[in-house]
TrEMBL record:
Domain Mechanosensitive ion channel MscS: 114-180
Keywords noted in UniProt: Cell membrane, Membrane, Transmembrane, Transmembrane helix
Location(s), subcellular: Cell membrane
Species this protein is from: Stenomitos frigidus AS-A4
SUPFAM superfamilies: Mechanosensitive channel protein MscS (YggB), C-terminal domain, Mechanosensitive channel protein MscS (YggB), transmembrane region, Sm-like ribonucleoproteins
Keyword Membrane on entry: yes
Protein name as catalogued: Mechanosensitive ion channel family protein
Any Pfam family matching the protein: MS_channel_2nd
Membrane topology of the entry: Multi-pass membrane protein
Membrane-spanning intervals of the chain: 30-48, 69-90, 96-116
Similarity comment text for this entry: Belongs to the MscS (TC 1.A.23) family.
Every Mechanosensitive ion channel transmembrane helices 2/3 domain range: 76-113
Amino acid sequence: MEILSFVLLAQVASPVATSAQNLSYVTLQILLKLLWAIGILILTRIGINVASRTARRVLVQVEPTLRKFFIQTAEFLALIVGLVAALNVVGIQTTTLVAVLGAAGLAVGLALQNTLSHFAAGIMLIAFRPFEAGDVIEGAGATGVVDSVGIFSTTILTPDNVKIVVPNNNLFAGTLKNLTAMGTRRVDLEVDIGNRPIEPTITSLLSLVQPHPLVLNDPKPTCNVASVNPEKTILYLRPWCAAEVYEQARSEMHQLVHEALYQPRTSEDEGGH
């Protein structure tokens, strides 16, 4: 009887032991897969950090905004690859996940079409570099100094210290003027000399602006007749200056011309001469 009981107990315990053994094996397999997946993610993160530091040293000559964008994009793509590899190790099917993410990306892309156009324009502006931070530009209805060039927008500071944020596509799709790209600018002055004799007045105006410290000797200033009628003669006086002092030079040239031609001379001035 005891032998029979022992046999029956063994028959009952055997499946239980087998199930426990199988459960332990499955649990161990799952833990190993999880550890392997975590290891992949850690190695991916370490690899990204090392590659990013190396890229920053290698791409030191590349424009900072462009360098930052490329590095961040590469980091994101590498992280996605590492995540997909980790999911595959765990046993999660990534095909469906990729399809869902693709559909979601398409929907988001359609919803953010205008934003993506600014993004694409930002890439083009950074790549072709029609202007850089510190340049004075005119475009999209704004004129001022470029403060920063971003992926989606460009920040401009106007002469009266107002910050303007311009969407990149507005700049890239329209006519853009870089007023300081060439290093020098021409100051165009329209001068009404009335009925004064033309040649002596031209000579006088040129001798007036040439010694000015903001006026360049190369190219030399020019003065030409714009129009003539019985009542007045209009001249174009065109001195050149460094681009960064354009506004100051333009203001001082106007003042010089006004004092020389239009401001009545006092007896004290005449006595001094």
